[in-house]
User: Fold this.
Amino acid sequence: MNIDRAVMAFAGVMILASAALSYFFSPLWLLLTAFVGVNLLQAAFTGFCPAAMLFGKLGFKSGCAFK
Assistant:
């Protein structure tokens, strides 16, 4: 798995977890979904993604988007 796929998988897990937490506990958990979405949007324009940096340090190989 490369960094690009790891970032997408991590974002998907965070969004699903946020949706489940908002359904079972509080709608305020949707703020986590908004945070993930904003982070993905800014990463698309700037190329800066903290999750990609973390996955790179964990030894994932580079993909097309994050090098």
Observations:
- The chain is about 70% helix and 0% strand.
- Residues 3-57 form one domain.
- The radius of gyration is 13 Å.
- The CA atoms of residues 2 and 61 lie 5 Å apart.
